[in-house]
Amino acid sequence: MGKVVAIANQKGGVAKTTTAINLSSAIALEGRSVLLIDMDPQGNATSGLGIDQQSLKRTTYGCLVKTSTIQESSLETSVSGLTLLPANADLAGAEVELVNVERREGHLRTIIEEVREKYDFIFLDCPPALGILTINALTAADSVLIPVQCEYYAMEGLTRLIGSIDLVRQSFNSGLELEGIVLTMFDSRNTLSKQVAEQIRSHFVDKVYQAVIPRNVSLAEAPSYGRPGILYNVASAGSQAYVSLAKEFIVHGEKSPR
Ligand code: ATP
Ligand code: MG
Question: Has this prediction a pTM greater than 0.90?
């Protein structure tokens, strides 16, 4: 039974998708079987893995409204061992269509159950909002992994997110754990970046991964080539940081799900 991990932060542009793509690729390359579910109508994880959003016939949207299954909608990617459930702008419709549906927060959880035993890990790339899509992800997940950009107000945003996670835990998913916090786009020459990192480490202690993702141009370029950074330029500091993160993740994260 695969472990389901939501990659979430309501703040935009903090490297949720970059982390989703590179962490899931690096774990697949470690020999695990991985499914990445694109839960964002922006479809950045889909394009970043080289899949044309416009040409998609089956997507996360169809699975959530139950016109297709994850099994028949998933695609193999160029990364061996990594399968993708792709998304495009259609997914924005799910926000509206699920509004009046009973137990709307539990749809993703129900449909994931059908494929869960096929994978070691299932990652959910969440949109930058705490709407119904992210709530579905947090309800389906065993744990949540939070990418944080080391900048002013990071701590405030993180505290708010932890509050939302607590609410989901109380209402829909009592087993939801904090998998870990990963510091992203870190700039060692920037004093603020270092101060924020220290503040987050002193508050969340061993929940913060030792691996820190540096600001790195290869990671930013890779999506336009439709490849994960760790394949586009494996030697880059950014790729190496994601490889380290994957190893750390496997050591801490590979335990039996609820
Ligand atoms: P959204 O909230 O819109 O879904 P996100 O949290 O998924 O955004 P990404 O799309 O992963 O964030 O990253 C935001 C931007 O920063 C992208 O252009 C990405 O290529 C770039 N980026 C991410 N990580 C790094 C990094 N370590 N170094 C340089 N650029 C990065
Ligand atoms: Mg994203």
Answer: yes
